[in-house]
Design a protein that fits this description.
mainly alpha; Helix Hairpins; two-stranded antiparallel ribbon; rod-shaped; septation; Bac_CellDiv_Activator; cell cycle; coiled coil
C-alpha cells in the first residue's frame, strides 16, 4: 500500500492507496488544477464552495466518460459481429471458389480429351462449348477472388477499429478511475471544510 503527502488547494493531505505513488500524485494534481481553475474564475467562492463545484465537475466528467465507455463497448460488439459475419461470408466464398476450381479442372480435362480426338465437327463444337464454360468459370473464379480480397481488407479494417476502440476504452477506464479517486478526495475535503466551519 502506498502512502504519500500531496498538496491540494495549498493544503497538505496524506493519501493511502493500493496504487503507485506517481498515480496518487497525478490524481491530487488533477484535483488541485480543477479547484484552482474554479477559484480563479470566481474569486468570491469559499474553499468549501469551490470544492463542491469541483466535485460536481469531476462527477460530470465521470458520468460522461462512463457513457462514452458504454458507446465504445457497443461499437466493439458491433465490430465483433461484423468480423464474425465477414469471416462466415469469406468461408462460404472459399467453398464456392473450391467448387468452381474443381469444375474448371474437370472441364479442362474434358477439353484435353476432346482435343486428342478432333476428327469430327461435333467434337469441335463440344470443345468450343467447354472452352466457353472454362472461360466463364475463370471469370467467376476472378470474381470470387476479388470478393475474398475485399472481405479480407474489410476484416483487417474491422480488426483495426476494434483494437482502436479497445485502447479508447482502456483510456476511459483509467480516466474513470482517476475521476472516482479525485471525486472521493474532493468529498473528503468538502466534508473537512464543512466541519471546520
Amino acid at each position: 500500500m502506498s502512502s504519500v503527502t500531496v498538496r491540494v488547494n495549498n493544503k497538505e493531505y496524506k493519501l493511502k492507496g493500493d496504487e503507485r505513488e506517481e498515480y496518487l500524485h497525478a490524481v491530487a494534481t488533477y484535483v488541485d488544477k480543477k479547484i484552482k481553475n474554479i477559484m480563479e474564475n470566481n474569486s468570491k467562492l469559499s474553499t468549501a464552495e469551490a470544492s463542491i463545484l469541483t466535485a460536481l465537475n469531476l462527477a460530470d466528467d465521470l458520468f460522461k466518460a462512463g457513457y462514452y465507455n458504454e458507446e465504445l463497448s457497443d461499437e466493439i460488439e458491433k465490430l465483433k459481429n461484423n468480423i464474425k459475419s465477414t469471416k462466415a461470408e469469406m468461408d462460404e466464398l472459399k467453398e464456392e471458389l473450391t467448387k468452381v476450381n474443381e469444375e474448371k479442372e474437370q472441364l479442362l480435362v474434358k477439353v484435353e480429351e476432346l482435343k486428342v480426338n478432333e476428327d469430327t465437327i461435333e467434337k469441335d463444337k463440344q470443345i468450343e462449348e467447354l472452352t466457353q464454360a472454362v472461360n466463364l468459370k475463370r471469370e467467376n473464379n476472378e470474381k470470387y477472388l476479388g470478393e475474398i480480397n475485399r472481405l479480407k481488407y474489410d476484416n483487417k479494417d474491422l480488426k483495426f477499429k476494434l483494437q482502436t476502440a479497445k485502447y479508447k476504452i482502456m483510456d476511459l477506464e483509467n480516466k474513470y478511475l482517476e475521476g472516482q479517486i479525485a471525486l472521493a478526495k474532493t468529498k473528503k475535503e468538502v466534508i473537512k471544510n464543512i466541519n471546520k466551519k
